[in-house]
Amino acid sequence: MAAWGERLAGVRGVLLDISGVLYDGGEGGGAPIAGSVEALARLKRSQLKVRFCTNESQKSRGDLVGMLRRLGFDISEGEVTAPAPATCLILKERGLRPHLLIHDGVRSEFDQIDTSNPNCVVIADAGEGFSYQNMNKAFQVLMELENPVLLSLGKGRYYKETSGLMLDVGPYMKALEYACGIEAEVVGKPSPEFFKSALREMGLEAHQAIMIGDDIMGDVSGAQRCGMRALQVRTGKFRSGDTSGQQGPGPGKDSRRPPGPRRGSQPSCVCCDVQPSAVR
Amino acid sequence: MAAWGERLAGVRGVLLDISGVLYDGGEGGGAPIAGSVEALARLKRSQLKVRFCTNESQKSRGDLVGMLRRLGFDISEGEVTAPAPATCLILKERGLRPHLLIHDGVRSEFDQIDTSNPNCVVIADAGEGFSYQNMNKAFQVLMELENPVLLSLGKGRYYKETSGLMLDVGPYMKALEYACGIEAEVVGKPSPEFFKSALREMGLEAHQAIMIGDDIMGDVSGAQRCGMRALQVRTGKFRSGDTSGQQGPGPGKDSRRPPGPRRGSQPSCVCCDVQPSAVR
User: Fold this and answer.
1) What is the pLDDT, as a whole number, of residue B240?
2) What is the main EC category here (chains A, B) (predicted)?
3) Of A45, B35, B80, B262, which has the most beta carbons under 10 Å away?
């Protein structure tokens, strides 16, 4: 196994996931993960470019950044690549008028979007908004369309809050896909377009950047498929069965990852179990 | 195309789906589909054995039969094959203690089942019970199990009520499958075991029976895979794009069936567009 200096050769920038890497959400705004405030401060003092690449879709970028700043993180709105603004660009480019199945906390991002007479559905991490009534309405809108379009802000399976694991948008995206016999378009990680837009904003090529996240699919595999390097931290949703070779997920494809005890907050390389002290 | 008499040669029994074939559910108990009360009465007067084979999982068999009798149908509880009683048998046989994500209307079917310290999840058409909180609880139970078992009472995509199309249990089953990286065990149509138990109760072999339903997958393909003949009615969830060759559904496999105008209440063979007057 190559030394860390060698494995990180040529890296000029770091993309950081937020939930499960910097903090765990939850009641009262959540809590920073031990050491993450200091790790980010150290990264910012280094020569490396830093950008935040998140699938957060319950909060607007402004609210997310405000909350993180209150927790002590050195972060500004312009440093964040998030799926809601990316979705608005797509809607405008394609003349799509969405029926929105989203959390009230992110609704302000869609203030400039025409939602009259919907010709598509946009689904995000709606949390408690994923009621049967709201899901059924989205389903009915899709079934009435000649060419149903479903945009999903990420396809994460779950995330970790301080109170435990929580269903993310992915399962609900799958539910609508199955109900309507369609395939959603994912805006956010692991979409290559999403990683590329983050790289563009950093002014870097894929081989010059490393993604750090807690999701073996959305963060690690997604970034690697774009030609980036990637590190999985052992915080957030990390489970001991995660392996870097794992693809997916999809019913019938994704092997069950055995539940295991959550490790501490020490990040390490998912490939080799080495603590990435070169980064942190 | 063979004549109807020839195509139905040797048929000694009829299995009837209920929702979308006999009636459409909805506010106030729903409404009979035009002609169905009379068609059932005629079948009962014939030499054919009649059994009802339903995936209804919001109501107990007793409540379902009571409601149908009030609508004018000649039906008794002992004539109905339904997934909740079949699930209870499986739970007892395998020593499974379920966490139940089900509608209150069917809860009485599980009165004799031990639900302490759950080692599996049972999901049925919970309707409004499919809240985010309830889905998340089922997800968390599964994620805590070493060998997670998910039993689903059917896997229908949707059904038709008088107010419109409604999400069935299938999409929520898919959501939990995706979230947990597991595959559910389906109890109900199109499970071969379920059709076989209905045939056993009729004392018939598969080649002696015909299934009549509105679901091209759950009813028609499912029965055909068991060696039975099958007819699709053009009521209930029938949509003009349904074809008998269609398999599925599953994300990425099930081609989008184009929405089309709902036809009238005339049942016909899905293969050849002939009105099955020999049956009705």
Assistant:
1) 73
2) hydrolase
3) B80
